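Dear Dr. K.,

Following up on our conversation at the group meeting, I've run the structure prediction for VWDE protein from Dicaeum eximium. I'm pasting the input sequence below exactly as I used it, so you can double-check it against your construct before we proceed with anything downstream. Let me know if the numbering doesn't match what you have in your notebook.
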Amino acid sequence: LALHPVITPELVQGRVHLKCSYSPPSPAPPVQYRVLWSRLSSPGKREQLHEETTPRPFSYAELDGANLRLGDTVFCTVTAFRRGTPEQQSLPEDSKGFYAGIKFLPESLEIAEDGKEHILTVLSTVPIACPGQEDSCKITLQLSTEDLGKSSRVPGPPDIALSACQVDLLPEPCSGGRCAAATVTVTAVTDFAQDGRRVSRVSARPAAPRGLLWRAHTPRDVKVTVRDLPTGNCYSFTDPHIITFDGWRYDSHKIGTFLLCRSESRAFEVHVRQRDCGGRRSATACNCGVAAR
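The predicted structure tokens came back this morning:
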């Protein structure tokens, strides 16, 4: 028999359950199903949770926060047999592993110090339930970043920036592996330091979680690798000598406020103010102020 067991999340009387569904043979003879629920305890190893025998083409397991918790990767294994002849069984069939909880997509990022924004999605694969509080039902996640640097060094300043410090996961109908989702953008900090490839991570922690199920859940961190790009420098110094990004040199002895640099691709510009500092003897100007955006 080809039973094709599949795990999907479902709310049952306001409580989060996982449903293992399988395809009965057609036309269906009087068949019983033995369903074994298990979870991944360590890479390549499974821990059995419970087993049941049922005539129905589905089986439920509740995420109760004790036996089955958020963060578990869950499997159901189904075997079929005819009533009265339990020794004659079909081959057991495994479902794909179902990760129950909150996760980031993508699970890792590699970005460059080029100012580009990268979308990071935070989603829950199970329904968010708040019995009696449907109008204000949500899970708030506090987001943080940490520069892991290199093992032999003290971590430096942040290497990545997020567009928000927290996100709200609001309940929505489960579809395509998500029951709630929010997005933030991640950008590499342009620090002008030639520090090679540095690794940071993005973490999420439930803020004032509702109920035991969510309180003990910590989503997996996202690893973000930041790659250096060559940086350019320009200068204005002493009376003033100018060196442009491409190395062109000239002097500017004019008095007033001038546009020193402006980007055509982003909101970045530098203004410089020059005052008379040569007096009557020479027409010389000196930098006396700078404004940068």
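Two things stood out to me. The chain has a mean pLDDT of 88. The CA atoms of residues 74 and 115 lie 39 Å apart.

Best regards,
J.T.
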